[in-house]
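Q: How would the structure tokens look for this protein?
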Amino acid sequence: MTEALDARYMALALALGRRGQGNAWPNPAVGCVIVQGNRIVGRGWTAPGGRPHAEPQALAQAGALARGATAYVTLEPCSHHGQTPPCAETLIAAGVARVVVAVEDNDPRVAGRGLRMLRDAGIAVDTGVLADRAAQDLGGFRLTRAEGRPWVTLKLASSFDGRIATATGESQWITGPGARRVVHAMRLGHDAVMVGAGTARADDPSLTVRDMGAARQPVRVVVSRRLDLPLGSTLARTAGEVPLWLCHGPDADAPLAEAWDGIGAKRLECALAGGQLDPASVLRALADAGLTRVFCEGGGALAASLLSAGLVDELVGFTAGAVIGAEGRPAVGVMGLERLAGAPRFALVETRAVEGDVLHRWQRVAAG
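A: Here is the predicted structure in token form.
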């Protein structure tokens, strides 16, 4: 019975934590539930900008009822002093009797210290409840600590035969309005939306979340080695209103760099590999700047470089019932594969109809 209740309350904490996705960076999007007896007395999740953390918000809601209660937290409570006191100390001061944690924090500043603080204070601590789901939800934050890069979701909207545009470049719209609305919701759950320079030039996108009541827009990232992007584009015109970050090479045109600086864009210089921007360097630069979850919307060359480097964690496909033919533009560019064994592999985790299109979601299969 206790195991079932623990899973039930942790599932709620995870659902709360997901409310902070796309808003909490550079901090993790954590959820917390305080339970007194069989009554939920406090709920919280990481606030926009990363503070306040989930635990103090849930404890404030619980008030005196937190004493002797059980706290369900999706990530190990922090143990270090930053802009706010450690959450482990806050839980101890509130007098909770038990803390249930989904996954431990792999941030070197915590890494088990928060759990030790709680146990040393006489609090019962249990870990591992719905750990797989928590590791998925917190994958971006954990990747930045383990590998120095954010979680990457690659979204591809294509025809039945895998084309994203006709031979003339016409692409609006292959999928329907229902699929586009789902894409906006997915953007909202990520820290940034990223495209390659070719997509930025061809589509003149805004890369914003629309018609979702978004109070905070994701960062817009364009990967452009030489910064040769139209200064009259939608992205340029709105650079002072919605964050625009440009990942470029060391050989970027100096006058263009100055022009983009002048209209409010943020530039991140990245290394080259094989004459092109190194995708690993791009992701490291984004992680160093605080991003934990990136939603990549192509185009084909950027998608191919990320896939070839093994840097895509999740694939999201929207497939329309249209056939464009071999002359159309492929969803993924040249990868140079000679053997099927070398193809990146993903495992299917979801498929469903979205009005007249099909959504399918896949996650990376670990090597070996």
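The longest strand covers residues 346-354.

Residues 3-141 form a domain with the Cytidine Deaminase; domain 2 fold (CATH 3.40.140.10).

Upvote if useful.
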